[in-house]
Design brief:
Layout (H helix, E strand, L loop, with lengths): L1 E23 L10 E10 L3 E6 L5 E7 L3 E13 L41 H11 L5 H15 L1 E2 L10 H7 L1 E2 L1 H14 L4 E8 L13 E9 L3 E5 L11 E7 L8 E6 L4 E11 L1
Parallel strand pairs: 6-7
Antiparallel strand pairs: 1-4, 1-5, 1-12, 1-13, 2-5, 3-4, 8-9, 8-11, 9-10
Helix pairs in contact: 1-4, 2-4
Length: 281
């Protein structure tokens, strides 16, 4: 499937600002069957723009606007060919649970077994994860049990949290959005030694689909399976990411993959508006 993504972010300032320095993680991956055919980044007012790859190989565009400005608009337009090549049947037998202990020795897994500021590995999340997986012997089956639990036990509520909400608050209120569901699943997986990383991207909602998180930035999780590599799970919709999904970045949690972040010199307040449109070509 070929998808076109428009992601437009606008900041309006009550008082003009200057020396705005920003990082954008908006360019989709080209890997694992997904190909970014075209990517354009437009910044108004225009500023110096360059790009690099961060520690997790996400493409980052860095730009600065030094002149006084009362508004900043960042518009990313992508055309991406997607695929379902990474989808595994839920009943697939992968590797025995006992092999998870060795994953911490793997460089590609170490960071994704640790607690973070968003995903604290507390006794509460550890006990919850153990209760959910029980004696299940297969790693992939364990991951599905944990995904199903998050989908069933947490209510999707766009007004209940914000981008700064941490795992303890989500566990207490049992509600949130895709970012929160991804953080809960990360905590559950890591508590039982399944390497898990946070993924940001987009979700296309076709004419017959009723998917949550579409037409906005979306978040899901990838777990590491020995001999199978990284495989995706979307707890918000209880499904594996297929050709409806566009992957942009991955990291330990939301803090590693924020679509746009930066700072500026100025006083007053700012107003943020975000528009995302995902269409099939």
């Amino acid at each position: 499937m070929t998808l076109r993504v428009l992601h437009r972010t606008r900041y309006d300032y009550s008082v003009p600002v200057k020396e705005s320095l920003n990082e954008a993680r908006l360019a989709p991956f080209s890997a694992d069957g997904q190909v970014c055919e075209d990517f354009r980044l437009k910044i108004l007012p225009a500023g110096k723009l360059r790009h690099y790859y961060d520690f997790y190989r996400n493409q980052v565009h860095f730009f600065e606007v030094n002149s006084l400005h009362a508004a900043l608009t960042v518009e990313a337009i992508s055309e991406v060919t997607t695929s379902s090549a990474r989808v595994l049947a839920p009943e697939t037998v992968t590797r025995p649970r006992g092999e998870l202990a060795a994953c911490i020795q793997l460089s590609q897994c170490y960071d994704f077994l640790q607690g973070t500021s968003y995903v604290g590995l507390t006794p509460e999340i550890w006990r919850l994860a153990l209760d959910v997986v029980g004696d299940e012997p297969d790693i992939w089956a364990m991951a599905h049990l944990l995904m199903n639990y998050v989908h069933q036990e947490f209510r999707y509520d766009p007004d209940s949290t914000n981008v700064h909400t941490r795992l303890p608050a989500v566990l207490q209120d049992r509600r949130g959005v895709c970012q929160d569901f991804a953080h809960v699943l990360l905590g559950l997986c890591r508590s039982v030694k399944i390497p898990a990383r946070y993924v940001s991207g987009y979700l296309y909602n076709g004419p017959a689909d009723q998917l949550r998180g579409a037409q906005g930035s979306h978040a899901w999780v990838e777990v590491y399976l020995p001999e199978f590599g990284w495989r995706g799970l979307d707890p918000t919709n209880r499904r594996q990411p297929d050709d409806h999904y566009v992957k942009v970045a991955h990291g330990r949690d939301y803090a590693d993959v924020q679509p746009l972040r930066g700072h500026y010199k100025g006083s007053g307040t700012q107003k943020l508006s975000v528009e995302v449109l995902v269409e099939r070509r």
